[in-house]
Structure formats: C-alpha cells, structure tokens
Amino acid sequence: MRIRYLLNTDKRVSKFDRLIREKFPSLLTENRPELYLVAGGDGAMLRAIHDTIDTGIPYFGKAMGTFNFLLNSFDNDEDIIQSLIEDTIKIDTFKSHAIEARLDNKKLGEAVNDVILGEKITGYHTFNISTENGDLKNFEMKGSGICISTAIGSTAFNFNNNGRILPLDSNFLSITGIVCNRFLNDIIPFQEIRITANGAKTYLTNVESEILKNNQELILRKGSQIEIGFLNKKEFLERRIDIAHRFRK
User: Fold this and answer.
1) Class of 98-223 in CATH
2) What is the distance of C-alpha 70 from the center of its chain?
3) Average pLDDT for 168-191
4) How far apart are CA 13 and CA 80, in angstroms?
5) Helices (H), 6-165
6) Of 79, 75, 83, 7, whose CA–CA distance to 44 is shortest?
7) How far is CA 247 from the centre of its chain?
8) Considering the domain 3-89 in this protein, what is its CATH number?
9) CATH 2.60.200.30 spans which residues of the chain?
C-alpha cells in the first residue's frame, strides 16, 4: 500500500517522526498515496483531514494524544507500518461526511467536526432554523449560539454542550442550542439545513469564517466523505460507548 505520512508540529510525535525519517523515508515523499498516516492526538487528525479533505484518501492514526477517539494505540511502530505497506494487516474503516457550508451561493468551506454559530457565552442572537425534511421549520430561538455537529465531532464541543454522541458511520447530525431560550438537543438526518441569524459569527470547526448579516441565509449540506481506519474496531466502539455513559456516573 502506498502511504503518505502527514507531518505536524506536535512535539509529542518527534520520536515517531524520527522513526519515519530513518526507517521509512519514502512515506514523506509519496505523491500517489492510498492511505494517509497521522500521528498525535485527535486535533492532529482533524487538522490533517481539514487540510486534505478533497483528496478522498483514507486516514490511519497513531495515538499519541490525550483522548485519541480517532486514532489507534500500538507500540510496535515498525511492525505496524511495515504491515501496512505490505498489506498484511487488516484495517476496519468507518466512513463519515463533513458539513459543507455555503453563503450567498459561495462555498465557505467544509467542517469536519461542527459548525458553530455565535461568538461568546454572553452573546444574544435570534436564530431561525429549517431542515429539509421539515423536522425543524422556521424554528426560532434566541441565545448565545447553536452547534451543528457531525458524527466525528459529536465527542468534541457537542459532547461538552450535552449533545448526543453519534455512531461514527451514521448518517445523522446532532444540533444543540447554546444558552438559548428554547430547548434544542436533537438528532436529525444528515440533510440540508438553512439558518439565518442576526450578526452571529459562523465557525467551521473552530475556524472563524464569516459574520451572518441580517437576512443572510447559511446553507449547510453533506460535504466530502471521510474514511478513518482502525486496527481494533471493537475497542474503538467501546471507548465511544464508555464516554456516552457519563450521565450514569
């Protein structure tokens, strides 16, 4: 298998970087990869996906972060990398999608984790939300903000905002209100969502993008497919289930 190792600035991966340079230097220059290799934490994986999302190439992560929801834990680095190159190891993959955001018929970008509208906890905006299937139709709420999360992002801000954790390969979004006058904590099909908001900043996975002016409509729809590989699918699923049990503790 042709593999490209995506470098990042995380100091925790310096030893792994050195291994790649010394033992597998071709991974740094491969220009027709079939798999991206990423080392670090979930943030490193998300940045790698964000930077290369339009390639459609699957990702495989070496866990060296704190939570590592999107990466694999293993110690025998050389053996695993060699097995990946030789196609002698089985990888289970999950497929998900980013959220494509559009404003005034222009593509703003794609959010791997979530689209967050709002600026600060003391902000106050009026939001109007409509979904393609009519689950939400001109649903108006006032407050600090709203979060629309993908399955990948459901263990990030969405989780801290009491949103539901979604199966990674599900075709759903989690949408939650942030300090609002009406309760909003829904799971909805991954579909087109139209939102208006008076002066609320729009974030694409924590990257500041645009400020919605009055009467401007933000359109969210299914974006690029993302595929992430795991050595132990069962262990990965158990970790997501475990964090979902937080309300029982």
Assistant:
1) mainly beta
2) 9
3) 95
4) 16
5) 14-23, 42-52, 77-86, 157-160
6) 7
7) 23
8) 3.40.50.10330
9) 98-223
Question: HSE of 22 in the Cβ direction (CA atoms, 13 Å)?
Answer: 8
Interior/surface letters 15-49, b for 16+ CB within 10 angstroms, e for the rest: ebbebbeeebeebeebeebebbbbbbbbbbbbbbb
CA separation for the pair 125, 145 (Å, rounded): 7
Q: What is the pLDDT of residues 210-232, one digit of tens each?
A: 888 887 899 999 999 999 999 98
In this prediction, residue 122 has a pLDDT band, given cuts at 50, 70 and 90, of: confident
First-to-last CA distance in the chain? 43
Task: Give the tens place of pLDDT for each residue, 21-36.
Answer: 999 999 999 999 999 9
User: What's the pLDDT score for residue 249?
Assistant: 47
Residue with the two structure tokens 């009467």: 215
